[in-house]
Amino acid sequence: MADRPSHAAAVAAPRIGLALAGGGPLGAIYEIGALCALEESLQGLNLTDCHGYVGVSAGGFIAAGLANGISPRELCRAFIENEGDADDILHPDSLMRPAWGEFSRRLAAVPTLVAQAAWRYVFLPRRSLLGAFERVGRALPSGLLSNRLLEEQMRRVFSAAGRSNDFRKLRRKLVLVATNLDTGEAAPFGQPGWDHVPISRAIQASAALPGLFPPVEIAGKYYVDGALKKTLHASVLLDEGLDLLICLNPLVPFDASAAPRHRVMSSGEERIPKLVDGGLPVVLSQTFRSLIHSRLLLGLKGYETSHPDTTILLFEPDPRDAELFLANTFSYSQRRALAEHAFQQTRRMLRSRRSVLAQQLAKHGVRIDDAALDDAHHTLFGRRAPSRLRSARALRRLEEVLNDLDHALAQRMA
Fold first, then answer.
1. Which of 78, 102, 174, 330 is the most exposed place for a label (fewest CB within 10 A)?
2. Concatenated DSSP letters for 337-358?
3. Cβ pair 214, 280 in contact under 8 A
């Protein structure tokens, strides 16, 4: 009779969770590139075999894919390279289709709303032209783009053999968080009482960014993007008693004062020396990123207090990274370049924090693969990286070593 694993060995197995924040197609591209870098640089980390996953908005479909056994490399082939099984290929341009159904419903309501506004203005004792306009404003659509095709595509992907569109049939815990529009409360699809909703429908609801996509109706209630409530919603996994929680957040505020001085980036876009010069889109982007990031950092501090026995690691872009900040959040044409950029930037970050991360990860059976991490010619798409001047490579490596020393000293003094 074969020996059974001892109870002590079973208890010793690390419980690793993965929390993925949102950020539109750009956020998904960043997370795929970063996840590929993490899995290939960290031995003992299998991202399709974690204890649990939580995803918000764009991070939801990636979390659902990993929980269904789709590896980061497979996600890259399907989402970035448009290769592999035809049913797995997700074309983000399907998200850019107008919400014609929403437009027609609102348009049909215009005559009634105009009549109500006119009646209120003429006959009510406290008439107000602004109030009349507010009544007509109800004819404005609740979203400009349709996310129906996203749900249909996700349903096909998770209905394939060996996968499931049912939370209750997954081997691993998966939670996809949306926000109830009428109450403002979080809707943790996948948790008990919420797990009857199809995964594809939960993804659609979690990614319904207000103003861009219409709220998603589920059982008579309407749901929008889960990031409205929290950035990560990591507590649903931390309460499981995790040993290690890995968090990815694609959107950080940009530090223009510390960004490199070159004016033209590799994408061909000109760098904006002052963010105000970028106009309203750049100002709004910086504002949104600052709001969600400050909330994220506050949440992480709370998690460290409430779950002191869990090692929590956050991976996100460098605040000085102009490539990611100035890229269009819904851009897909530069997906290969952006994914490669995220892949290499994550590898740089791992090298810059190597000493501290090695100690933190070793406690949970995960080891940094120095040979893979230090291979200067390793790329996401398997091609030889463009050669740099020897002096530039030496300066880059020196910067990484100094950053590593800074992190190690800060850890000792903490």
1. 330
2. HHHHHHHHHHHHHHHHTHHHHH
3. no
Find how far residue 260's CA is from the centre of its chain.
26
**Regions in the chain scoring below 50 on pLDDT:** 1-10, 262-264, 267, 385, 389, 392
> How is 24-78 classified by DSSP, letter by letter?
HHHHHHHHHHHHHHHHHHEET--TTS-SEEEEETHHHHHHHHHHTT--HHHHIII
Q: Under a CB-based contact definition with an 8 Å cutoff, are residues 181 and 215 in contact?
A: yes
* DSSP 8-state symbol, 367: E
344-349, Cβ contacts within 8 angstroms, sequence gap of 24 or more = 344/37, 344/379, 344/380, 345/34, 345/317, 345/318, 345/321, 346/33, 346/34, 346/37, 346/38, 346/315, 347/37, 347/41, 347/373, 347/378, 348/396, 348/400, 349/315, 349/318
Q: Which amino acid is at 343?
A: F
Tell me what pLDDT residue 7 has. Answer: 42
pTM of the model: 0.84
> For the segment 197-228, what is each residue's pLDDT rounded down to a tens digit?
999 999 999 999 988 899 999 999 999 999 98
